[in-house]
TrEMBL record, chain A:
Domain of life: Bacteria
GO cellular component: plasma membrane
GO molecular function annotation: heme binding; heme transmembrane transporter activity
Protein name: Heme exporter protein C
The species this protein was found in: Spongiibacter nanhainus
Pfam families reported in the protein's UniProt record: Cytochrom_C_asm
UniProtKB/TrEMBL annotation, chain B:
Transmembrane segments: 29-47, 54-74, 110-130, 136-160, 167-188, 200-223
Taxonomic path: Bacteria, Pseudomonadati, Pseudomonadota, Gammaproteobacteria, Cellvibrionales
GO biological process, one term: cytochrome c biosynthetic process
Main location: membrane
InterPro entries per UniProt: Cyt_c_biogenesis_CcmB, Cyt_c_CcmB_bac
Record NCBIfam families: ccmB
Primary role: Required for the export of heme to the periplasm for the biogenesis of c-type cytochromes.
Name listed for the protein in its UniProt record: Heme exporter protein B
């Protein structure tokens, strides 16, 4: 399981099984949500951005927790693969967080009349974005790959302690400053006709995360193992599936 | 003597040494304070001297600048120990690294956070903060700066081996500072408005207890990583 070569070959077979359902669910869920779900009685059609916005935000949070767990696994069991997964999640998670912020702003303009509010939930997602950028920056600052992975693991774990704080800041922030003027739609209050396509895009987004992280991890494996025989063979062979299939 | 029974002695020695070294190198503890004073004095120049506007902004300004000063003070926390080999001796010592790190962070707070809190009423007056906000400002800074010291020490430990750790440290540490800032400045704000301050101060206390319990683990881990490479 820990062997990079084995993982590279295994993940190569796994990729289409993630990419195809991810694409189908994301595109299908969006078409379903955009074209077939009736408009919201209050927000009209503008609510439809939730089919991208909510999955991006949820998966961005989930990805951070996976990154922190991968970091912990690397620190505890010295598993190199966990370090590679941890490093690979950071850019994908940062991108998803940015997507959540961007779609949130696009949605906020027609709904609240403003691109940006210092609402606790929005601010907390912004912090999440900064945490991802911090992990990426810390990783790049080290020359030594192992030290970088360990340092990032510590930072990811410390940052994960911040996530419940961020989560509950919805209540703290406004109970201390001013009454809540913005309420997010809870899952229980959403109509099932809107919920089903949302579940589809959410699942699709998680599969997309898996696919993107695998691609980054595979690139990282090739980079780390670039002096080994199997990587040289792989690069020289024209078949993208690897040298093993050439012989057959 | 067993290693654990000599831990308090070692911690006291570390604490004494840190305070002694800092007292002989005045710039170490004086520069963050100077930074605090100077940056605070920039705001009336930039925003205009209108007393009412300044009074509104004062809690936030004081807390943000205190936070930046604390960050600058923490940056070099382990640098000289790393360069002259003291840090390696700490790692090799039979005593738990936890204790050393705790003592060092405590010393750092005594030399940076406490003077900052004591100095803060002076700047609060300059920024027209109403007198009712003063006690909350001092107490929130006293508690909050201790949390900032612990969080900052984690980032300082992770970046101590890097040549250009300064800017990187701010990237790592500022997101983690945000909850402290929220509760600290809102405590002062509530005090000015005459609302109960205790909830925010209690939260800062909770952060501090969590930081004392868990941050030394992360700091010790960071130091081991930085020394290993």
């Amino acid at each position: 399981m820990g062997s990079p070569r084995w993982f590279y070959q295994f993940s190569g077979r796994l990729l289409p099984w993630l990419a195809v359902p991810a694409l189908l669910l994301l595109v299908g869920g969006c078409v379903w949500g955009l074209a077939f779900v009736p408009p919201d009685y209050k927000q009209g059609n503008s609510f439809r951005i939730i089919y991208i916005h909510v999955p991006a935000a949820v998966v961005a949070m989930g990805a951070y927790m996976i990154m922190a767990v991968a970091g912990a696994i690397h620190l505890i069991w010295r598993m190199k693969l966990a370090a590679m997964v941890m490093k690979s999640i950071a850019p994908v998670g940062a991108m998803l967080t940015f997507l959540a912020l961007l779609t949130g702003a696009v949605w906020g303009k027609p709904t609240w009349g403003t691109w940006w509010v210092w609402d606790a939930r929005i601010t907390s997602v912004l912090i999440l974005f900064f945490l991802y950028l911090g992990v990426i920056a810390l990783h790049q600052a080290f020359d030594n790959r192992d030290a970088a992975a360990k340092a990032c693991a510590v930072l990811a774990i410390v940052g994960a302690v911040n996530i419940p704080i961020i989560y509950y800041s919805v209540e703290w922030w406004y109970s201390l400053h001013q009454p809540a003027s913005i309420k997010f739609v809870g899952e229980s209050t959403i109509h099932s006709s809107m919920l089903r396509p949302l579940m589809a895009t959410l699942t699709g987004m998680y599969l997309f995360l898996g696919w993107a992280v695998l691609l980054y991890t595979r690139a990282e494996i090739l980079d780390r193992e670039r002096n080994t025989r199997w990587v040289k063979d792989l690069v020289l062979s024209s078949d993208p599936r690897g040298p093993a299939s050439n012989k057959g | 003597m067993s290693p654990l029974s000599s831990l308090p002695v070692a911690m006291a020695a570390t604490l004494r040494r840190e305070v002694l070294v800092a007292s002989r190198r005045g710039s170490e503890w004086a520069n963050p304070l100077l930074f605090f004073v100077m940056v605070c004095s920039l705001f009336p120049l930039g925003l205009g001297p209108d007393p009412r506007q300044l009074a509104n902004l004062a809690p936030g300004i004081l807390w943000v600048v205190a936070l930046l000063a604390a960050m600058m003070a923490t940056e070099g926390l382990f640098r000289s120990d790393f360069e002259d080999g003291t840090l390696e001796h700490m790692l090799l010592s039979p005593l738990p690294l936890y204790g050393h790190v705790l003592a060092k962070t405590l010393a750092h707070w005594l030399l940076s956070g406490v003077p900052l809190s004591i100095l803060s009423p002076l700047l609060a007056v300059l920024l027209q903060l109403p007198p009712t906000g003063m006690p909350a400002l001092m107490v929130s800074l006293m508690l909050g700066s201790a949390v900032l010291s612990f969080i900052g020490a984690i980032a300082a430990a992770l970046t101590v081996g890097l040549r250009r750790g300064g800017l990187l440290m701010s990237l790592i540490v500022l997101p983690l500072y945000i909850p402290v800032l929220i509760f600290g400045s809102s405590a002062v704000q509530s005090a000015v408005e005459g609302v109960a301050v205790l909830p925010q101060l209690a939260m800062l206390g909770v952060f501090l207890l969590l930081a004392v319990a868990f941050a030394p683990l992360a700091i010790a881990g960071g130091l081991r990583i930085s020394c290993d490479q």
